[in-house]
Amino acid sequence: MDTQNQIKRVLSEPAGIHCVCRLLEHKEIAHRSALAALVCEQFGFYDARGRPQRAGCLKALRELEAAGHFTLPAARRSPGRSAPRRLPEPVPLPAEVPDQAGLVRGLELVLVRTSAQMRIWNELMIDEHPQGAGPLVGRQVRYLIGSQHGWLGGFGFAAPALQLAGRDEWIGWDGEQRREYLHAVVGMSRFLLRRSVECRNLASKLLSLAIAALPDDFARRFGYRPWLVESFVDTSRYAGTCYRAANWIAVGRTKGRGRQDRFKQSALSVKAIYVYPIERDFRKRMGLSPDAGLGALRPADGLAADQWAENEFGGAPLGDARLSKRLVNVAAAKAEVPDRAFSGVAKGDWPAVKGYYRMIDQPEESAVSMPHILAPHRRRTVRRMKGQQTVLCVQDGSDLEYTNLHQCAGLGEMGTNQTGARSRGLHLHSTLAVAPNGLPLGVLRAQCTAPQAKSPEQDRPSFAIPIEEKKTFVWIEHHRDLVELAAEMPQTRLIDICDREADFFELFEEQRQNPRVNLLVRAKHDRNITEDPRKLFAAVRQAPVQRRMRVPLPRQSARPKRSKQQARPQRPGRTADMAVRYLRVQLRPAHYHADKEPIDIWVVHAREENPPPNTTAVEWFLLTTINITAPEDAAQCLRWYCLRWRIEDWHRVLKSGCRIEAIAHETAERLRRAIAINLVIAWRIMLMTLLGRETPELPAAVLFSDIELRTLRAYAKKND
Question: How distant, in Å, are the alpha carbons of 92, 409, 647, 678 from that of 363?
């Protein structure tokens, strides 16, 4: 498809104005349309069908006349808006429409071609659509939604918004590219499903039908296929659920300005922006780089040594562009020697050391915070997630001990050791996105809290404390964050994977309220259930074995006894032969949740059949909202749960490779800033290690610079 003709831009140049003036002086121009025809012929302004673009040319000529460049012949008639053609009476209401989309008889989209069809479309829109019938602008395609029950509504497609910040940022084009390729975008200006129609899943089905029909109908009418469709949802009236169900992508919000808002009054309601890529490679077709915009990325994209820090930290909203640039430089330098303090990393470059500490030591209330430092990395992580059909979002916590930082303000109490001495530090809770093949895609969310000891005056029982006041609420906060992210990637399935600490009723209730993200949680409590024998563990143990599978168990390091944490012996890694069972049960709420309904959930049970001598058999109970219809579904849940250890490996890289517990600062907030930088460095180290194992054929140049490759080759040659 050719790029869009820039009619006004071409005619605005001195050569263009001179040519129009010459035509006006030396040609007998009977009317403006004749002038437009000559200008189209002179400059080659033709559309994809080879027809002159007279309407666009006339508009540009009128605007240039208004700017004082020349005087056009008098208009043959004054422009005015004609009334739309209508029916003499309202369109009859559809009759006996079933309550499910699959039961609607004769459902079809009727392309509006005739005057009679246009009258029906206008009448429907004028009577029942908040925006009326128009007028629509640019290239237009209209549909009526027909059925044996009567007319159910209609669609109207026309020109897209000229500028739209959320859309333009998501596409990644600049102003010049937008002018060249805006005609490849079509705006869905009208979508009407009549108020009298109450039919489940019908709206999302119609959206899918429209997207399937539009490209060919548009191409037959205008000579080329569009690449992208955009639409708007007034969130004050609609939730946009049908768009998400039809795999449209939410990319931002409007500013309340319409197409004709020349004075920036923003008088319209703010709307959510949704897009649907008809051509998945539309960025490539526009000549954009693979990294442009906010589209999907592969796990290894942009990880090379000379660009990764800019990609993962560039543009962080730290309140000062100089601080953002410094963050990139600090991260790039720290990644080269991740286990050393920055003063050692800088190798005597004292201006760099001073710059680092000036950034870390910003005031507590400054924009230099953990969420802001991680913001660019989060955006890149989301893009890597969009390239996957399924993403495992693993939540977990880890204690960071800073007992030796006696002067550090803001640390929390982590408990007592065997001698009774109190330890101080921070609790890190994170969500790590992992691909189904085990590659970590990035850190979605992380927060470091300072736990406080329970006040002696706090005598409320645990069940009387609101969940928002409990430390376990952090699991719900991270789950809600995943639910919001899921709206941005409807083609990607998100699964929230948690360990036993997340086995509490409120989390499952949260998921029931918004089931967009599934849960996979290892059970901790032998809960009451509605089925016999009334206990969760006993019920699933009695279920028949559905299949057997071999599960790799990672090694487990020894852990000494702590305040409320039992000691754990060392366990070498091994492969376990597991018997797999599954069962659907109803979890009964506790007595203090008497107002809640039982929760329907699947439980997957896996038990090691022949453990090594003197070894306790591994036994897991996994609670999941994923629908299990076959043994393979249960096995898939087990495989996914095994990837939960990726976050444990990441914690190990953080503590051993990056040595984040050796960081020394005067306040907890400054520690959080330094930790945030290391979170991303540890993710990159881990990903590079796994990429080398999982994809050994990956070219080394993807991850290493030329000088690093020369150094590695020299080192390898030396050790031959």
Answer: 67, 14, 31, 20
Q: Contact 335/350 with Cβ under 8 angstroms?
A: no
Picking from 517, 490, 493, 494, the residue whose alpha carbon sits closest to that of residue 251 is 490
Q: CATH code at 521?
A: 3.90.350.10
- DSSP string for 500-517: GGG--HHHHHHHHHSTTS
Backbone angles phi, psi at 414, to 5 degrees: -95, -5
Is there a domain that residue 331 lies in?
no
Say if residues 264 and 270 touch (Cβ distance below 8 Å): no
Stretch 587-592: mean pLDDT, rounded? 88
**Whole-number pLDDT of residue 714:** 65
Three-state SS string over 565-604 comes to CCCECCECCEEEEEEEEEEEEEECCCHHHCCCCCEEEEEE
Calpha distance 426→451 (Å, rounded)? 7
What's the mean per-residue pLDDT of the chain?
A: 89
Give residue-wise pLDDT tens across range 297-334: 889 888 888 889 999 999 999 999 999 999 999 999 99
Can you tell me which residue has the tokens 């086995």?
503
d(CA 636, CA 628): 10
- Say whether both 127 and 256 belong to one domain: yes
61-118 pLDDT per residue, tens = 888 888 888 888 887 665 556 778 899 999 999 999 999 999 999 999 999 999 999 9
| 47 and 110 co-located in one domain | no
Q: What spatial distance separates the first Cα and last Cα of the chain, rounded to whole Å?
A: 55
391 and 269 share one domain: no
pLDDT digit string (tens) for 123-163? 999 999 999 998 899 899 999 999 999 999 999 999 999 99
| CA–CA gap between residue 620 and residue 579 (Å, rounded) | 11
3-state percent helix, strand, coil for the chain, nearest multiple of 5: 40, 20, 40
Residue 564: predicted pLDDT: 53
Residue 1 has pLDDT above 60, yes or no: no
- Is the model's pLDDT at 262 over the cut of 70? no
Do 45 and 107 lie in one domain? The reply is: no
What tokens does 269 get? 């309601």
Task: Tell me the residue length of the chain.
Answer: 720
CA dist., res. 708 & res. 303, Å (int): 14
Strand order across the beta sheet in which 272-277 lies = 108-111, 141-146, 153-158, 185-193, 228-233, 272-277, 249-253
Token pair recorded at residue 582: 């599954």
